[in-house]
Amino acid sequence: MYNLLKNKRLILSLPLFLAASLLLPVYIVPLGHASPGTGLVCITTSTSATSCPTSAPTIGPLTAGTVFTVGVFIQGSDAMGGLDIYVRSDPAFVNPTGAALGNLIASPSLTSICINGSATVGSCTVNTANGPGVVEVTTIESSGSNECGGISPCSGMAFTITYQVVGTGPDTLLSYPTAAGCSASSVSSPPNTCVEVADAAGTVLSENIQGATVRAPVVSQTGMVCLVYPATATSCPANPFSLPPGNTTVGSHILVGVFVQNSQPLGGLDIYVAANSTYVTPTNVTLGNLIASPASGAFTTRCVNAQSLQGACTVNSANGPGVVEVQTFDDTGLNSATCGPSSCSGLAFTINYTVVGTIPSTPSDYPRPSKGNENACLLNGSVGTTDICVSVLTAHGDVLPENVQGARILQTVVQHATTTTLSCVPNPVAVGNPTPTKCTATVRDTSTTAPTSPLGAVQFFTSSSGSFSSDFCPLSGGSPNPNTCSVTYTPSHVDTGTHSIDATYTGDPGVHTGSSASTFFLTVLKATPSVSTGVVNDQTGVSPPAAGVPVGTSLHDVAVLLGGFPVTGVSGTVTYTLYPNSKCTAGTGTVISIRSVSASNNVAGSDSVTPANPGGTALPYSFNAVYSGDSDNNVVTSACEQFTVLPAPQFASGKLHWTHHLSLAKSSNTQSWTAIVSNSFTTSVNVVVRIVGASATNPLLSFDVTCGVTCVNTDSGGVNSTPGLTPVSVPAGTSSLSFSFNQAISPSFVNNKFSFTATLYWSLGSGYTPSSTKSGAFAVVL
Fold first, then answer.
1. What pLDDT, on the 0 to 100 scale, is given for residue 19?
2. Residue 66 — very low, low, confident or very high, per pLDDT cuts 50/70/90?
3. Are 648 and 628 in contact (CB under 8 A)?
4. How many CA atoms lie within 13 A of 240 on its CB side?
5. In angstroms, rounded to a whole number, what is the distance separating the alpha carbons of residues 393 and 525?
6. Which of 182, 203, 147 is nearest to 6 (CA)?
7. Cβ partners under 8 Å of residue 505, min gap 6
8. Phi and psi of 9, rounded to 5°?
9. Which pLDDT score is estimated for 300?
């Protein structure tokens, strides 16, 4: 806060200093300045004051609703260039509503005004004293110079604050708060006082402080609002009465009066009376004779248990279970005719109660507003400076002072023993189940003669990994025996699979003894996630077609893991297994990969595999994935994901035809071949036939050709290195295709017998792969 102020001053001062330095001679003559002195920061009752009062002023007494303005004056200080001052009040009595700069800072700049922790100009300084009842004003001189022409001492009105009286007391001080963030203070004691007055260079000046007192009005409580029994009583008892036990057994009906005694003449009232509805429940309320001509219809309110019998229950007040509100005024517009010239007494109204529970003693008195509605009854309250909801008014609306006196309802109570039982449903329950387990405690009064409803609370315990919606539950009002209450239990881990839950009834003092239930054992099951798999063709990125994939295809499996506990993701591993059949038969598979489960149940896919098919028919394969489970989740196996690996193109039925006794003269030095092939693939395939042969008697005579439409000599690097190949295309799904080609035979082969091996090669466009072979022999003659 304070460093920021200094920085602001420095930013403004620096350009001025530089500009001035250009105009000054080399030597500098110090300005005349009084010796450093201590000034006074004070509160003035006038906004036009020209000095501080000789002592801290007293303002008031002031009544609720009054608006007044004070000044914050600085007197006899060293000349200053800025300030940051906080003033605090009790906002329950005196609440600041506005603030404005005075004439002390001639040309204010970088101003902030903060009221009740909210900025009206600029911004509130954080980590200081700002909050309810606090005003902060901070500003600096925009010229970069000190006020009063830089001549000390310097005095003036720093700023003004406007307040509104919102309560009836107690007295409050207008003072200067302290906070750790106010360490750069002009006040030496107490330390960290949030008052800083500084010169244009940022030097903190020394100041004393003087506050003020705002007085609350002195209220004379001349009347009395009391409870009377019987309701026909004509005066308040000397002391709060106690209704005797003989009239207060469970089920009894009681008529109680609300009486106003020795009040000043009155013309209206708004009175609340409360009782503990667990034991005594109001059922009706009837106007008495105090208001001679009560307003008719909705202008009179009769409210019981927050339910209207007439008019409208006042909202945001003390209404609720067990509370009665009566609000009315004399329809003549004058004070009630039952009142004399100086005082007034009479029965305001009567309340019908039904006894519904048992307790040695329960009070009936005058409530305050519920939490969140504090001070709702303060402005028109008749009971001093409290917010008790009793308001007695003159015909002109003036609030009359009253005392209040309640009562007690007594019962004869024999303490009864109890038993407590505990049950939880559903049981068993899986960890992570979206529907929590409901645990119900049943407390029974074991008296065989006159059992009553056990009241109070039941406390729940567990030594297992889990939590309750609440550790306590209240037993309901009314008169059931046994009485019950429930909480929900949510397991956070499986642990051993059995969670122990206990419940203890804490008792109803003077009425029922406490008791504990036997431990309830809740079976907690592991959650069951789901896992599914999908086989993916590495080349296409999609699942294999139902017809199958060509042998040599690279594939991998992908698992999807869902559910389980916790919802942020399970732990453990997923094992991918490949099976040489379509049924994932146990004991036949090969583990391909084991992957750890990462965040949000993400699982990497398996390594790639290339399933073999050395035969001539399609072979079934299958994948599955097994999640390992963990301490809170079951082992889960996916469904079996099937796929088919098609065989490579084959010599159909092993058929390859050639001339067994070859006459070169008759065949024009050529051997004729006919190959019959099949293709089970779902796409067409190119094939060639490589034939390697040698003389049985002369190994130097040999040949190695690769043939399709025509034959070429095979390169030493093999078929895939051989140029000039003329493959034959075999359509998809072909069971038998015949094609022929001719091989040139050298005359040097005459009179030799040649053995050979013919191998079918196939290609889908990126290199040839061998498949089936056929061996044989032929003789060459002239």
1. 33
2. confident
3. no
4. 13
5. 67
6. 203
7. 418, 420, 441, 443, 454, 456, 457, 458, 475, 512, 514, 515, 516
8. -60, -45
9. 95
Q: From CA 36, how far away is CA 47, in angstroms rounded? A: 28
CA 241 to chain centre: 51
Partners of 44 in beta bridges: 71
pLDDT tens across 526-550, in order? 999 999 999 999 999 999 999 999 9
Cα separation of 704 and 657, whole Å? 18
3-state secondary structure string across 304-353: ECCEEEECCCCCCCCCCCCEEEEEEEECCCCCCCCCCCCCEEEEEEEEEE
Torsion sign (Cα): 562, 568, 570, 571:
positive
Q: How far is CA 740 from CA 151, 535, 707, in A?
A: 122, 40, 9
pLDDT digits (tens, 9 = 90+) for 468-523: 999 999 997 666 889 999 999 999 999 999 999 999 999 987 788 999 999 999 99
Concatenate the DSSP letters of all residues of 595-629 into one string: EE-BGGGB-PPPPPB-----SSS-EEEEEEEEE--
> Position 50: which residue type?
T
Distance of alpha carbon 40 from alpha carbon 75, whole angstroms: 5
Contact assessment for residue 524 and residue 565, using Cβ atoms and an 8 Å cutoff: no
Q: What is the pTM of this model?
A: 0.51
**Phi-psi region for residue 450, left (φ > 0), alpha (ψ -120 to 50) or beta?**
beta
What pLDDT is recorded for position 692? 97
What is the distance between the alpha carbons of residues 469 and 377, in angstroms, rounded to a whole number? Answer: 35
CA–CA separation, 705 and 150 (whole Å): 114
What is the Cβ-side half-sphere exposure of residue 667, based on CA atoms within 13 angstroms?
A: 23
Contact 47, 71 (CB under 8 A): yes
For residue 14, the surrounding DSSP H or E stretch is: helix 2-23
pLDDT of residue 26: 27
- Among 515, 514, 508, 438, residue whose Cα is nearest residue 476: 508
Residue listed under structure tokens 């909705």? 298
Joined tokens for residue 51: 């000095």
Tokens of 153: 């001492």
Rounded CA separation 174/70 (Å): 10
Question: What pLDDT digit, counting tens, does each position of 383-417 carry?
Answer: 877 789 999 999 888 899 988 999 888 877 778 99
CA quadruple 51, 57, 63, 65: dihedral sign: positive
pLDDT at 358 over 90: no
Name the β-bridge partners of 331.
none
